[in-house]
Amino acid sequence: MGGGGSVQTVRYSTGWRAPEQDRKPSPKISKIRSQNYEEIKKQCLDQGALWEDPSFPAVNASVYHSYNLPYQFEWKRPSEICDDPQMFVGGATRFDVVQGELGNCWFLAAVGSLCATKSKELLHRVIPLDNSFAKGQYAGVFHFKIWQYGKWMDVVVDDRLPTLNGRLQYLHSPSNNEFWAALLEKAYAKLCASYEALSGGSSSEAMEDFTGGIVEHYELTKNVPDDLFNIMKKCYERQSLLCTSIDVSRMALESELPTGLVVGHAYSVTAVKSLKVRGHDVQLVRIRNPWGNKVEWNGAWSDKSSEWNMLGENERQELGLSFEDDGEFWMSYPDFTRNFHKLEICLLTPGTLCEERGRRWELTSEDGSWKQRVNAGGCRNYLNTFWTNPQYRIRVADRDDDSDEFGTVIVAIIQKERRKKKKEGFDLLTIGYSIYKVPEKDTGPLDMNFFKYNASAAKCPTFTNLREVSGRHKLQPGYYVIIPCTFQPHEEGDFLLRVFSEKKVTSGEVDEPTGLVGVKSEVGVFIDNKENDIRVLFKKISGADKEVDAYELQEMLNSHFKKELTFGGFSLETTRSMVAMMDSDRSGKLGYGEFKKLWVDLRQWQKVFKEFDRDGNGSFDSHELREALNSAGFTVANATFAALVMRYSDPRGRITFDEFILCAVKIKTMFAIFLQMKGKKPVAEFTLDQFIQTTMYA
């Protein structure tokens, strides 16, 4: 039954996005997750073989996916590059990080920041100490722990590295026999499907993937908090990762400025210190260029600048001062804010910014997705579709300990696996979110009128095309709905919503159960008045047996409804389903009594369709299907709604009259069968034959 369970979880889901284990994983992720480091290592040691990773082969396509290189990389193991390969030489330090030919300074800056923390526990959670080149332990296989969208993954790689002329081409250590950095980069490249996929990015991505933390962003060109230096110092002391960068200007990317700094480049922040110098407070920031060379800041407090003469020998030693061409330098905090444009701080928990070390923050998270034709509604600028976006209800139950009025929440939306999809031509979406105060009573999904007449209580600082958008908000206790969205409508993607709070916040997807609701019909009066006309129509088509089959029903209905609506007529599939809905004895035909009941339904559903086909062109948008079904007397859960849209809308997201009627007919049929089969039980049970007869005949 294991195989049957697997099929069930793939085909049927709950919510906008089923739990991770209930979804069919991408082949690449599946292979990565099925590789067990201990098992591979033991097998290779037993066989005396060195492992070769089949899911990330040593070929050019694992390096560059977008074009063919005019040369071939030589993939070499460390023992083919040097005589005495080691994982670490003198431990892992920020000085081991030297950028190669790949434009991934954002990643290297995060690696340098990870090494600069005082916590070896953080470092060796990512780089386990059981990786080794020692005899009896080395099998050509290594592993690294990387956080991905709420879960820690053990990424296993072989140690074949891309070289040209015997030299490593990408991230490497100044020591030619130290390989932890190059292997970590390979593990991250494997996770993203190629080395090329690492070109360009934000350090916030890698910092979160090394910690599972959350990044807060600071623009240093405007609205700089008065206490930013204290925030930086406190975060550094509490093992947070810090990176900074200079935006691209009119100068070419990675051009060197007269100050020695580089445009469009990411740096690690490796220390934040406050000193007393001749009776004055001096605030200093230590920064490292991942190029690891002499391209450094050349202003005040730079290497060998005169300011250092004001410090005594003990103070110099306390700072670990050294003047090498290693990419690392000091600068004053005012110079830092004048010359750099962005600061990213990865908090291990949001409480890093709180005064109390013991304060514990709560986390709740939800997986979701935007799907074209279903719930990819775009931002509030697109009111007609904005309301269709996924909605998540949270409850801010209590005020902060230090506030009489508000509770603090940090909301973060991460778009999933976009870097991996670069190979397929996808890029990061521009994403954001809004937060709305809602009544205490759960009213189900909020409709367009709610957003038309209610302003947001809070929203993201800005829409961004980074992997994650986040914001810190102070909200009064109560119920809220978070709307994650892309800026433009009709853009597809998966995401993870995380909500951090000082006091526990409950969350859940806003949904409604699939069911029947009472609808007052005005068609009954019409039927009574037109009873004779309907009987004549039926008699004309039915013939001697006084029954109609699907073919006769199609002819009869098309002759009538095509006069009233713009559509191509009912398909044979639709009229067959109509017969099945009313055909309790499965004769394949309808008598007059059954036809009359069908006619009542059709006229009611026609009325509903006209309400939503506002321009009279014979169709309406798929995102309106839920409201149309509500008007017809049905409620549908999010996952069921998504399935119906995929089944009954065309590629443009339009639903014709024929498809709407077919959808309504099948839903009503399925409801009737389910209620009949379940009786007084909460679930309906079917034998295989009953299930096949039900689904195939409906």
Automatic annotation (TrEMBL):
Residues 1-31 are annotated as: Disordered. Residues 50-349 form the Calpain catalytic domain. The keyword Repeat applies. InterPro entries: C2_III, Calpain_cysteine_protease, Calpain_domain_III, Calpain_III, Calpain_III_sf, EF-hand-dom_pair, EF_hand_dom, Papain-like_cys_pep_sf. Pfam families: Calpain_III (PF01067), EF-hand_6 (PF13405), Peptidase_C2 (PF00648). Keywords: Calcium, Hydrolase, Metal-binding, Protease, Repeat, Thiol protease. GO terms for molecular function: calcium ion binding; calcium-dependent cysteine-type endopeptidase activity. Residues 600-635 form the EF-hand domain. SMART domains: calpain_III, CysPc, EFh. It comes from the Eukaryota. Gene3D superfamilies: 2.60.120.380, Cysteine proteinases, EF-hand. GO terms for biological process: proteolysis. GO terms for cellular component: cytoplasm. The active site is at 105, 265, 289. Belongs to the peptidase C2 family. This is Calpain-3. It comes from Capitella teleta. The lineage of its organism: Eukaryota, Metazoa, Spiralia, Lophotrochozoa, Annelida.
